[in-house]
Specification:
Largest sheet: none
Keywords: Cell membrane, Membrane, Phosphotransferase system, Sugar transport, Transmembrane, Transmembrane helix, Transport
Shape: globular
Helix content: over 70%
Mean pLDDT: 80
Pfam families: EII-Sor
GO biological process, one term: phosphoenolpyruvate-dependent sugar phosphotransferase system
Oligomer: single chain
Low-confidence stretches: 283-287, 293-298
Radius of gyration: 24 Å
Organism: Macrococcoides goetzii
Membrane topology: Multi-pass membrane protein
């Protein structure tokens, strides 16, 4: 299956839009999970899109930058991984390790280039401010979107339009002569979400909320065991009795998420009750264990 011209056009346009959404619009369409969903819709393979997008979202959970620092462009990596995975029949895990993560890392360079190019319009805005030219300020502010969009659109377009043969050759090698490497990359792609969780836990105050962490882990483990047991039992009974309908389902992840939400709500209410007691104390009282700042209004 080849990537059609209209798919290349739509994916390139979305690549240019998603960085603007991340910088200014904030509709959450710039998140990897949405990048996977939208790319999957365009490519006609929503399942692959959600797997790659969700895995990439988990991979970058703990990745953050401050100030003007550049970070990996997980969205562009997700777009290309979904496109080539759907077109060439790559497994989502292999596409994640061989395409999504490397492309996301390489796109740091185009992000830096966009920042440099955007300083031209920033200086023009400064000049228009001195001239009290408000229309000029608005115009140059909007023109600043151009280098940001092109920094994503051009690489994604070139990769989709001209990189298909190269990616196909690499995939063929990974599935034949270098199958050992392809299998290793598939395993690495499956492990990457766990790496994202590990990075996130490094920044979260785990010791402070250790009881919640333990309870959540135990509940999830119990539910997995119960649902797996019920599913296995239902499968065995349906094999013995043809009239038995196996209506068992897998563990609902929404239920696990709601457990986490319940703990978060309880902790939030607890923090609201504690804040009035700290109102008369010094600002140092707001800095609690592990250096976590309880209140951002110091």
């Amino acid at each position: 299956m080849e990537i059609l011209w209209w798919q290349i056009a739509l994916l390139s346009l979305y690549a240019g839009y998603q960085i603007l959404d991340e910088l200014q619009i904030y509709s959450s369409l710039s998140q990897p999970v949405f990048a996977g969903l939208i790319s999957g819709l365009i490519m006609g393979d929503i399942k692959t899109g959600l797997i790659i997008g969700g895995s990439m979202q988990l991979t970058i959970l703990g990745v953050g930058t401050f100030g003007g620092a550049s970070r990996i462009d997980a969205n562009s990596g997700t777009i290309l991984a979904v496109a080539f995975s759907s077109a060439l029949g790559m497994s989502p895990q292999q596409a994640l390790a061989t395409l999504a993560v490397p492309v996301a890392s390489l796109m740091i360079q185009t992000d830096i280039l966009a920042r440099f190019a955007n300083t031209f319009f920033a200086h023009r805005v400064d000049a228009k401010i001195e001239q009290m030219d408000y229309k000029g300020i608005e115009r140059n502010f909007l023109l600043g979107m151009v280098p940001w969009s092109l920094s994503r659109m051009i690489p994604v377009f070139l990769a989709l339009a001209f990189g298909g043969k190269l990616v196909k050759a690499v995939v063929n090698y990974l599935n034949t002569d270098l199958k050992w490497l392809g299998d290793g990359l598939t395993v690495a792609g499956a492990v990457l979400p766990a790496v994202g969780f590990a990075i996130l836990l490094r920044y979260l105050p785990v010791r402070k909320h250790l009881p919640h962490f333990i309870i959540g882990f135990v509940l999830a483990a119990i539910f997995v065991t119960i649902f797996d047991g019920i599913s296995g039992l239902s499968g065995a009974v349906s094999g013995l009795d043809k009239n038995f309908v196996n209506a068992s389902t897998n563990l609902p992840m929404l239920a696990i998420a709601l457990i986490g939400l319940a703990f978060a709500i309880m902790e939030y209410k607890k923090s609201i009750e504690v804040k009035p007691k700290l109102a008369g104390t010094t600002t140092s009282a707001n800095v609690i264990e592990e250096g976590e700042i309880e209140d951002d209004e110091l």
